Input
Amino acid sequence: MQSLLTINNLCKNYRRSNSLFSSSLESAYKNINFSLQAGKTLSIIGESGSGKSTLVQTIAGLREQTTGNIYLNGKELTELTTQERCKSIRMLFHAPSNSLNPKATIGRILLAPLLLNSNLNAEQCDERIKKTLNLVGLLPDYLAFYPNMLSSIQQHQVALARAMVLEPDIIIADEILAGLDISLRFKIVNLLLKIQEKKA
Output
């Protein structure tokens, strides 16, 4: 059975300045190999500064690896268009309050990915947005709200809805539980597990 995501010998190097006239080559990560089956969850664990965020950002297309290959459903990601990559792999960032446009309503925030990466008409976009809101446990009433009108847990739900609205193959979460108290962490984890079960 073909893996959904395959990482082969992925490395990321960067040049670090030692002084005005000298520098050295450093590795953010090196020789990373793993595969992920559809419907499964993979956790990447490591110390602060070990390259976790750089790695997941590379997989999401926000950074470029130095060497190695990333395959989605057997196709190398470099062969995909930006639109195809955006539809296939979506990312949840560390702090939703910083990644949600404070001047845009929730409706506009969720509509933006559809306008940029799909051919849905206005009616289909509206239907997809409401369906996605329901998936993450929010009512359509929230479409008229602004991010600062929401609680921390609701901001996480909106960020998750934004990631899910394109119905991607993979969701990457970069330390989304950091800074949350234990009860909110359980709520987010349970929500993610429920969505994974529904989409399996």
Observations:
- DSSP finds seven helices and six strands in the chain.
